Task: inverse folding
C-alpha cells in the first residue's frame, strides 16, 4: 500500500502536467457555415412551439436505442418472425395470438377496476368468460365474433387516468416507443400476466410463454424501423406515439 | 321552311348530338352512388364502409429491396436509404403484369396502392407496386439527382427501376403483357412513363390508366399550399386548431375502439368540421410529406436549403430545428427556391414561367390525344385542379375520360363502381 501511494501521486502529477502542456489556450473556432436558404431565424417565430414537440431530454440515448432496436430486428426478431410464419400454419398462429390476447383482456379487467370504470370492466370480463370457456382457454376469439367490444387498458393508462404525467419520452430496448410513466407501468402489467400464467400453465410451457408472446406481438406489429426513409422518422414516431397514448388515456 | 332555317335547325341538332356524345363519356350524377358529395370530406374520409369494392383481405403482397445505385455513398444521416423498397404480388400462372405508382409522398404499401393491388391481384394480374418518387426512400435510393418533381427525370428514374425489377422477375414468372396505372402524382408520372416507353419499348404497355392526375404540377401544389392558410385565425393559430382537432378526434375515438374502417367517417360526422378546416387538414398532411421530402433532398445534395451547406449531420444528430423550419415551408417554396434553381443549373436558358409550364400534362397533350391506350378517371370536384382544368381531360382524351361528378381527390378510388371500371379498363379485350 505504502509503495503504491507515491507512485499514484507521481502518475497524477504527470497526468496533470500533460494535460496542461497539451492544452494551449487555443480556442478551436466553430466552423462557420453559410446561411441556408431558409434558416430558423428567418421563418420560425421566436416563441413558437411546434405542435409536434414532445418532451425528450434523453433524445441522444433514445436515438441510439431506436437504432439498436433496428439492428435487433434485422438480426434476431424479424428472422424469428419469418421462421414462425413459415413453420407454423396460420390457424395455429391465430390460436397463439388469441391465447395471449385473452390475458390482455384480463389485464384490462384489472386496470378497469383500478380506473373505476364499470363499463370496461363488464366488457372485458364478458370477453374473458366467453373466450376462456367456449373459446377453449382463449384459443378461439369467440367474443369478437359475437361482436363484443374489446377495450384495451394497461397500467400506464391507469396512472394517466389519475393524473400521473407521462414524464420524458423513452425508447425501450426491444419494446420501442414509450415514456417514463408507461415504461415503468409495464412492470406491474407484466407481473400480473406472469402470475396468472404461473398458476394456470404447466412449468415447461410457462417458461416459454414470454418468448412466444414476444414473437406473436412482433408478428402482429407492422412497424419497421427506418423504412419510411424520412430523416424525421424518429420525430414523427415520437409524436404519433405520444398523441396516441394521450388519446388512449382520455378514452 | 327555308333552307337557312333547315340548316340552322340541323346545326342545333348537331350541337345537341355532339353535346350528348360528350356527356355520355361522363357518368351522370343520377347513376353515381358514391355517398359523399362534398369535395373535402370525400378527400379526407374516402369511401365509407358498405360502399367499398369487395376485395380479398389477404393477397401475397411481399416487400422487396432493390439496390438501384450500388456505388452511391449516402450521407450518414440517411444511412438506411440505400435500397429502394417496393412490393409485389405474383400469380403462380402466366398473367399480365401491372405496375402501380403511388401519389405524392406515399409508399408502395400505402392504403391506396394496397387496395389497387388487391383489386388487380383478384382480377388475375401480377402486381408490382412502387412508391412515389416523392417518397423519401425513393429520393435517396432511386432518384438520379436526389431532387424530384421533374416530369421527365422522374419518369426516367421510374422506368429504370421498372426495368430492373422486370429483369429480376423475368424467368421466374410468365408475363403475357404489361400495363401501368397510378393515382394523383403517380398518374402524372404514369403519363410520362408511358411516353418514355413508346420511345424505349421495354414494356410496350397495353393499357395505361391515369387516376386523378394534376394537369399542371405548379397549379396543384399552389392549391394545396393555400389550404394551410385556411386555418381559422391564420397559420399562427395552427396549434389551437390542431388541439381542437385532436380533442374532437378523441371524443369519437372513445366510442369506437378500432381506428380504421368506418372510423374516419364517424369521426367526420361527430366533429362537424367546416370545409376550410378540412382543407387545412389536407394542406397540413401535404406539408408533412413535403417537409420530409425536402429535407431528404437537401441532405442528399448538400444544397443548403434548410441545412447549412457543408454541415455534416450524423445519424444521431438533433434535427429539431430543421424539422421546425421544413414544416413551415410548402411545396411552392421548394419549387421556387430549390427545385427550379437546381434544374436551372443544367438548363440556364429556361425561365421560371417556361419551367412551370413544362411540368404539366399540357406539355404532352398531343401525345396523350393520340395514344388510344391511355385512359383517365377523374372527378369533377377534385380539389387539386384549378377551376376549368378538368376540361383538359374531356378535351384531350374525349371518350377515354371518365369524369365522375364527385369524389374529391381520390376519395372514391375504393368505391365499388370505380374499382370495377379500374379493373375492366385492363381486362377488356385482353386474352
Result:
Amino acid at each position: 500500500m505504502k509503495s503504491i501511494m507515491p507512485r499514484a501521486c507521481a502518475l497524477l502529477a504527470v497526468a496533470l502536467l500533460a494535460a496542461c502542456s497539451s492544452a494551449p489556450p487555443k480556442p478551436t473556432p466553430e466552423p462557420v457555415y453559410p446561411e441556408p436558404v431558409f434558416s430558423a431565424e428567418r421563418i420560425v417565430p421566436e416563441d413558437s412551439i411546434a405542435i409536434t414537440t414532445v418532451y425528450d431530454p434523453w433524445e441522444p440515448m433514445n436515438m441510439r436505442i431506436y437504432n439498436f432496436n433496428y439492428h435487433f430486428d434485422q438480426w434476431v426478431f424479424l428472422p424469428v418472425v419469418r421462421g414462425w410464419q413459415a413453420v407454423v400454419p396460420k390457424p395455429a398462429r391465430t390460436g397463439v395470438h388469441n391465447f395471449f390476447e385473452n390475458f390482455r383482456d384480463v389485464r384490462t379487467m384489472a386496470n378497469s377496476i383500478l380506473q373505476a370504470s364499470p363499463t370496461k370492466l363488464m366488457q372485458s370480463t364478458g370477453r374473458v368468460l366467453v373466450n376462456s370457456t367456449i373459446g377453449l382457454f382463449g384459443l378461439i376469439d369467440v367474443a369478437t365474433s359475437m361482436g363484443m367490444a374489446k377495450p384495451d387498458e394497461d397500467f400506464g393508462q391507469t396512472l394517466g387516468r389519475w393524473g400521473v404525467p407521462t414524464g420524458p419520452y423513452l425508447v425501450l430496448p426491444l419494446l420501442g416507443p414509450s415514456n417514463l410513466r408507461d415504461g415503468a407501468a409495464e412492470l406491474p402489467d407484466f407481473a400480473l400476466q406472469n402470475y396468472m400464467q404461473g398458476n394456470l400453465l404447466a412449468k415447461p410451457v410457462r417458461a416459454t410463454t414470454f418468448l412466444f408472446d414476444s414473437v406473436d406481438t412482433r408478428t402482429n406489429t407492422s412497424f419497421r424501423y427506418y423504412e419510411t426513409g424520412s430523416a424525421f422518422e424518429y420525430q414523427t414516431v415520437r409524436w404519433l406515439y405520444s398523441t396516441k397514448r394521450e388519446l388512449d388515456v382520455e378514452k | 321552311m327555308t333552307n337557312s332555317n333547315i340548316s340552322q335547325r340541323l346545326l342545333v341538332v348537331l350541337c345537341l348530338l355532339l353535346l350528348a356524345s360528350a356527356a355520355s363519356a361522363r357518368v351522370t350524377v343520377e347513376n353515381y352512388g358514391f355517398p359523399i358529395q362534398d369535395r373535402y370530406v370525400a378527400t379526407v374520409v374516402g369511401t365509407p364502409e358498405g360502399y367499398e369494392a369487395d376485395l380479398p383481405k389477404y393477397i401475397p403482397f411481399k416487400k422487396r429491396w432493390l439496390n438501384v445505385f450500388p456505388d452511391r455513398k449516402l450521407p450518414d444521416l440517411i444511412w438506411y436509404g440505400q435500397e429502394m423498397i417496393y412490393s409485389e404480388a405474383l400469380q403462380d400462372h402466366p398473367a399480365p403484369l401491372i405496375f402501380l405508382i403511388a401519389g405524392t409522398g406515399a409508399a408502395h404499401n400505402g392504403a391506396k396502392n394496397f387496395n389497387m393491388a388487391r383489386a388487380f391481384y383478384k382480377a388475375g394480374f401480377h402486381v408490382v407496386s412502387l412508391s412515389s418518387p416523392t417518397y423519401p426512400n425513393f429520393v435517396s435510393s432511386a432518384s438520379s439527382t436526389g431532387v424530384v418533381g421533374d416530369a421527365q427525370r422522374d419518369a426516367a428514374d421510374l422506368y429504370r427501376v421498372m426495368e430492373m425489377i422486370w429483369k429480376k422477375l423475368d424467368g421466374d414468372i410468365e408475363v403475357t403483357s404489361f400495363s401501368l396505372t397510378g393515382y394523383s402524382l403517380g398518374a402524372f408520372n404514369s403519363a410520362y412513363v408511358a411516353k418514355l416507353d413508346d420511345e424505349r419499348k421495354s414494356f410496350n404497355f397495353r393499357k395505361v390508366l391515369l387516376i386523378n392526375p394534376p394537369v399542371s404540377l405548379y397549379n396543384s401544389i399552389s392549391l394545396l399550399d393555400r389550404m394551410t392558410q385556411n386555418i381559422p385565425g391564420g397559420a399562427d393559430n395552427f396549434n389551437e386548431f390542431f388541439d381542437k382537432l385532436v380533442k374532437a378526434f378523441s371524443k369519437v375515438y372513445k366510442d369506437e375502439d378500432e381506428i380504421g374502417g368506418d372510423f374516419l367517417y364517424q369521426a367526420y360526422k361527430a366533429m362537424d368540421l367546416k370545409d376550410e378546416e378540412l382543407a387545412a387538414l389536407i394542406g397540413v398532411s401535404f406539408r408533412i410529406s413535403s417537409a420530409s421530402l425536402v429535407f431528404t433532398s437537401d441532405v442528399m445534395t448538400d444544397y443548403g436549403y434548410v441545412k447549412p451547406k457543408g454541415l455534416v449531420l450524423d445519424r444521431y444528430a438533433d434535427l429539431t430545428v430543421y424539422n421546425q423550419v421544413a414544416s413551415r415551408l410548402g411545396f411552392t417554396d421548394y419549387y421556387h427556391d430549390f427545385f427550379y434553381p437546381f434544374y436551372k443549373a443544367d438548363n440556364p436558358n429556361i425561365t421560371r414561367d417556361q419551367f412551370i409550364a413544362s411540368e404539366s400534362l399540357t406539355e404532352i397533350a398531343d401525345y396523350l390525344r393520340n395514344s388510344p391506350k391511355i385512359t383517365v378517371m377523374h372527378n369533377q370536384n377534385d380539389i387539386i385542379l384549378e377551376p376549368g382544368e378538368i376540361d383538359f381531360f374531356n378535351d384531350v382524351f374525349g371518350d377515354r375520360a371518365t369524369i365522375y361528378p364527385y369524389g374529391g381527390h381520390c376519395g372514391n378510388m375504393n368505391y365499388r363502381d370505380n374499382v370495377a371500371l379500374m379493373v375492366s379498363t385492363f381486362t377488356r379485350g385482353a386474352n
